[in-house]
Amino acid sequence: MAHLLDQKEHLLKMMNDLENGKVPTSSSAKIYEQSYTEQDGTKLLMVHDQEGKWLLAVGEGVIFNDLEGTTLTNDKKVCPLSHENRLVLNHYFDYTVPRAFGTKTATMGLGDRLGLASPGHIETVRNRAVKPILAQQSIRELTLLNRTMKDMLDAASFAVFQEGYKDGFGADGDHIKEEKDIEYALSLGVSMLTLDCSDHIPKQIESLSPQELVEQFNQLDEETKAYFKNEYVNKTFSVNGLSIQFDETNVMKNVLQYAKSLNFMAHVFDTYISESPRPIDFEISIDETETITSPQAHFFVANELQRRGVSVTSLAPRFCGEFQKGIDYIGDIDQFEHELREHALIAEFFGYKLSIHSGSDKFKVFPIIAKYTKGVLHIKTAGTNWLEAVRVIANTNPSLYRRMHTYALQHFEEALAYYHVTPDLDSVIPLDQVEDEKLADYMNDDAARQLFHVTYGILLTAKDENGEFLFKDEFFATLNQQEDVYREALVKHIGKHVDLLGL
Fold first, then answer.
1. Which residue out of 17, 154, 172, 174 is catalytically annotated?
2. Active site residue 283
3. What whole-number distance in Å separates Cα of residue 352 and Cα of residue 297?
4. Mode of pairing for the β-strands spanning 42-49 and 236-239
5. Which sign does the torsion angle of CA 390, 395, 400, 404 carry?
6. Residues 6+ apart with CB under 8 A from 83
7. Exactly one of 283, 287, 304, 339 is catalytic; which is it?
8. Up-side HSE of residue 28: CA atoms within 13 Å toward CB?
9. pTM higher than 0.85 for the full model?
10. What does the radius of gyration of the chain's CA atoms come to, in whole angstroms?
11. Mean pLDDT of all residues in the chain?
């Protein structure tokens, strides 16, 4: 923080204005006017100079004393946006704490892989009929970026304070599979838990022959077989006017497909969610599988959860067609509408929200989703925010973009270990044929979008032989310089999502 002492005179001038209840102006720092607040004898304001963002604290009392930072005078302190200071803000300002929203409010997961997107997200959803889940990253994403769940939560809370946003936001422990990660996420204060059940859902049930299906089902214990046969075989269920029928074959398939995962869901709910001292939005994810979730299978899972006393806020099926990362829906639109309608009726019947994963850029089907969910849903986006950052880089730092593009092509195959995408990279116009002014057009090309979408971790952690980052430092420096440009890009792009979803 040595540079702060070099700017002591300028800082003191700003803080003197703050002391007098006036939001200061500055030619060398950006002032976030909406962050200005006064409580318990302390005035606070967030600013951004060439070294980064800081919290200016002026006054006395518990908040001033609890904040860590460089003391300029007895009542003036410059505080870093550290984890410890985020916890101080959480303690004194409730609106900086993630909260659950329940089953009646539309929510949108806005995965901020960079820790820079939340201000744009807040501006996008402010005064709209949707609440932002600002902190949303899976263990996989965090690992690929060498970030932590604390980093994710810190960035979201500081963004909320910066924007003076007091309408509520959420934090999602996204696609968690392991109990140790569930415990850790809840201990940090996430308000939503997305339970990824894919490790408990077999992959080959649909391909079993009739004989193999019977053989595997008969390996189950007698009590389990008797229960499911008695409850489902040759039974018809009426769900909001929808008739769902089961015969012996599809009962066996559903049991073999989902019985193990249902035990896992119930265990997690009983152990962690129902015992939580605060509300938690509990989402069930059965979408990260090879098996499309038929409306019948959706009903089966939901009905069994209800029988076991498991209350869920939202459930994510695996829809027909393909929800590949970063591009529009691939598949039969008519079939999707037919099945989406039934999925929505089932979710409504059981009293939870339908959840759409990999929801970024699925513009073709957003009006259909809006129609049948009636504006009450959860939708996850993530990588599209990173792609908008890449678009900003292409427009403002073409040299960096070219180096990243080349490296992404060289390392694309490595990224396929983590993501299912099928871009035709041969269709991407060679880099040497594109002028600097046209580089951003790559972000309008499906194959190029997916190239960048899946290589984000590789690009932002790549180092040279001296251990220096190849792109990360310059990437973040550029985005920080172009903060308003990135913000405007997100408002436009995510705003299109919100508009088409009717929120």
1. 174
2. yes
3. 16
4. unpaired
5. positive
6. 150, 154
7. 283
8. 10
9. yes
10. 25
11. 96
